[in-house]
UniProtKB/TrEMBL annotation:
Superkingdom: Bacteria
Segments forming domain Core: 2-101
Record's GO cellular component terms: cytoplasm
Sequence similarity: Belongs to the HesB/IscA family.
One Pfam family cited in the UniProt record for this chain: Fe-S_biosyn
GO molecular function: 2 iron, 2 sulfur cluster binding
Official protein name in the record: Iron-sulfur cluster assembly accessory protein
Amino acid sequence: MLIVTDAARKQLAKNLGESSAEAIKIALQKSGCSGYKYYIDFCDKVDEKVVVIEETPVKIVAEPDILPYLESVTLDYIQDGINRMFKFQNPEAKAECGCGESFLL
């Protein structure tokens, strides 16, 4: 299942605390030249449509159909100078586009 680093967990908790949402949602969409892209969104209501991946310190959810795409994936939060971003690392990806935005399984 999804591995969340301490740095990512801390930033997700901060982002969630600044919103009115109930949880952070990890999602997947078709994108880029390689096929798919992970993204992070707010989940206003946690219901039977989502699966809770992590409960504390921040509730993280995903739709059931993307769970296979989260196996062995690590979510990290990287700070490099003034640049800050969430980074998904999927060791099972067969290909990634040059900019690293999308991947192919």
